[in-house]
């Protein structure tokens, strides 16, 4: 659209002001040259306007009424002139030596509001200047004053940052509302910002007003609750908002900014038109003509600019007061539903409140009939037709509801600024700065680091015009957008590397734009200035967000690792050493001004979400910065001036945002108009750049980084306890970050020292609580102590104040702490977090032939039995008949263990299940066993010559104690057992039998079996045994009822007499065989130290004298056994005279 503008040099350089006459035929301008000129709007640039020259100092304000106009200046006078003429009619008010800042005539032209450098506002009657009302409420100079369209309310804006609404409808003025924190506070009257127009511009409906905020936005303040309902902003409108103007019918709002002049539609809050001409100086005031399509303004250069036809003819007229122009802003209630068959009571169905009645009075002055159902119809044509469906409903008599639409925050790169005077910052963080200088044909990129000992600064020529950059620990990342045939790409430049060709480029598909980039990685362990320095930590990680909804992960060497899908609109991101923090908009913005942003912490190692939470950004505010703290925690800063930190980010999906700092409550902001541009967070310090006035971004030369102390926004004002509690909470937050990163370690020296310092502060708080008798508080503070010795100090404090009950409770807390290791619990808790989020194993489906798992609550089978070999019962095993003499009884059952030695050879005595024989013993075939082969085997085990004859093994004592475990693994090379012969005479065997029978009668059967075995040897004698040599049985590890080895037969007399023959060639073999006395006496097992060279079940040979005595004792035991209760069937005994003692030789 071609721009037609008339520019007149009206005044000298300085703040210049403007006002239209009520009929729109004249324009009044005043400036620093003390003159007021009256311009004819119908004439062009070559006119010579009339001049009013009565002011002695700079003219600071002008206002026009129905029959006059007034001006104010720094000479403290308010002068009244004839309408459209420079004829002075007199003085209206005087400010007693201070500058007049604003004059405003009410809509009826009867009163004028006068503001000055005093905090008092005067309302003077133009008909009688002696009738003055003073309004006191501001604390500093009052900059602007504006009237409500009804004239009942006056709005004043002060240098203290307050907007005060005064109710002047009654005889006495009263404050309706005080609004703080919207407009900036400008204390310096000589600052250029002080002259900017901060007026509250009321809409023609009277339901809300527009004002330029300190955040460089245009806010809408509702009259219903005096709250901000919406904002008007656009990417093209940047910088300070210096002036506002509303069209005569309220359809358009014009705003002047540093970047130009813009016109918004008040109905849908969209920017429609922009002034295409150049703006050479800041605009100080502007106004729409009340009679024609004309917008005029004055600037700090003293020029008057008239924009002819700013609204094209195809759009609604800015002057005509149409019904549709008010339909979007008047808040009225829907008519009540008429009662059936009662048309007379329709009015009663719609109650009228006082506020609605007041609104109807206000709108009555505008000529709007609210009782007409057709008032909502839009007769503005298609210029504002944003919703055809809504228009159709309105045409059918429905109600058209207008809602505020919050503009979505566009993607941005943390630490970047827009191009200003051909220079900008691409990145600004705790590592360094990337500066860009536009050389028209190319860019010069300069990279500077804060720590130059670790990294080397560099610069290069950029022909691709990179507009995104990220400084990481391991390298710098750059990105450019597609242009013509050139596609978008990113380039990664590591700081220092031992390999050549470390830079790499990643090309994007055609038409894909790069929305955001981030470079992360662990801090280097050594300096990266030299290429020879080798660091095995790699070159970091690279993350790229594209317009295709992709989040691409690459390694520092350019390896593509993952491509994730973004769940919403990308906003920004920042990368750390282990993760990347991505901010997206999941859905759309809300109607009440919320950006609806969500942050996700995605790990580099497995690309899983560590944290996900909505960003706590207040309504009608935007996200300004995201970053990482020195400890590695995510941090964010919004336009409301609040810094948030996520300390427990290592706990999966459980962390929360903590309000770490509210810059609006800093002491340094008292009386200053400044804002803060975040750079990073280091410990308990907020690193930032301080911006003065309405400055949005840091400029050049580069400002210094300032440190602001982080203070949690606690509300306690106690001078002693408040700072200690705040410091304890802040330090605990930092310690939580360090503890969560310990892993399996318990603590570090730094953490222990800081915990000790915190305990000292807690002791001070405990002392203060005990001193003021707040015992519950003292006990709670004791629970917060970290170290166990600190409890002793707390107990001493309680004892000093004679608080015995508190002292006992503290001692109980100490005992509980001592019994429970705090550091161990913290480590187990960290391990538990990892276990809770361990990968879930895949479901295993049943294979062919495998029964499927029973359904839940339908398996009534008993639990499976556990196989425990050590707890199994002993099972009886029958002794093979081949080892028995033909004249012995068949009852030779023995008890063996469940697990016999599998290495036994030629052992046929297997026990059947349940102790039952498969067939009778007499039916079993007698298997022949070679005695010579068996003896030879044993001699080979003992290392003896095979030529020696074999001696039958004696049956061992069934009641003997079980040999030690060391006998199972005998040493074949150990010395002979001759040195370990027993020197004690054993007791009677049958005395042991009697004791066993007295303890348990069930052992009778086994006792008799043992007696039968020994008696058989005694009766038959050695001659019989020699005539019928018994086969040797290798019993292995079979045991009896008491866990002993089974008895083995032996010839006592033969063994004893053989022992008497000195120098016999069979002495060595006799020592390897157990004697009868040792086989039947339990004492031989107890008193004799077993040698590892002996077989299991063999014992040492007693002295010859002891053998004869023990043989006689056994014969006596045979006679005693005849008197037992159970009869015993003895085999026929041989004739006594036939007994002979055989000598083994």
Description:
The protein has 1145 residues and is α+β, with helices and mostly antiparallel strands. It contains 17 helices and 53 strands. Helix 5 runs antiparallel to helix 6 and helix 6 runs parallel beside helix 8. The longest helix is centred in the C-terminal third of the chain and has 24 residues.
Concise synopsis of the structure shown:
It contains 17 helices and 53 strands.
Keywords:
1145 residues, alpha+beta, 4-stranded antiparallel beta sheet, 17 helices, 53 strands, disordered C terminus
Largest sheet composition: 4 strands, antiparallel
- In DSSP terms, counting alpha (H) and pi (I) runs of 4 or more, how many helices? 17
Beta-strand segment tally:
53
Intertermini distance = 139 Å
Mean pLDDT: 76
Provide the helix percentage: 10-25%
User: How large a portion of the residues is in β-strands, by DSSP E?
Assistant: 25-35%
> Which overall shape is indicated by the principal axes computed on the Cα atoms?
elongated
Strand order of the largest sheet: 1-28-27-26
By secondary-structure content and strand pairing, the structural class works out as: alpha+beta
Low-confidence stretches: 323-404, 879-951, 1022-1037, 1050-1126, 1138-1145
Topology, element by element:
Elements: E1 4-9, E2 17-20, E3 26-30, E4 36-40, E5 51-52, E6 59-64, E7 68-73, E8 77-82, E9 88-94, E10 100-105, E11 111-116, E12 120-125, E13 132-136, E14 142-147, E15 153-158, E16 162-167, E17 174-180, E18 201-202, E19 208-212, E20 218-222, E21 228-232, E22 241-246, E23 252-257, E24 260-265, E25 270-274, E26 283-288, E27 294-299, E28 303-308, H1 324-327, H2 354-364, H3 388-395, E29 423-428, E30 432-438, E31 443-449, E32 458-462, E33 468-471, E34 475-480, E35 489-494, E36 504-507, E37 514-520, E38 541-546, E39 550-555, E40 560-565, E41 569-575, E42 579-585, E43 597-603, E44 609-614, E45 623-628, E46 634-638, E47 642-645, E48 658-662, E49 674-682, E50 685-692, E51 706-709, H4 721-740, H5 749-771, H6 775-783, H7 788-800, H8 804-819, H9 822-836, E52 875-878, E53 893-896, H10 931-942, H11 989-999, H12 1004-1027, H13 1052-1060, H14 1067-1071, H15 1076-1080, H16 1083-1087, H17 1104-1122
Antiparallel strand pairs: 1-28, 2-3, 3-4, 4-5, 6-7, 7-8, 8-9, 10-11, 11-12, 12-13, 14-15, 15-16, 16-17, 18-19, 19-20, 20-21, 22-23, 23-24, 24-25, 26-27, 27-28, 29-30, 30-31, 31-32, 33-34, 34-35, 35-36, 37-38, 38-39, 39-40, 41-42, 42-43, 43-44, 45-46, 46-47, 47-48, 49-50, 50-51, 52-53
Helix pairs in contact: 4-5, 5-6, 5-7, 6-8, 7-8, 12-17, 13-17
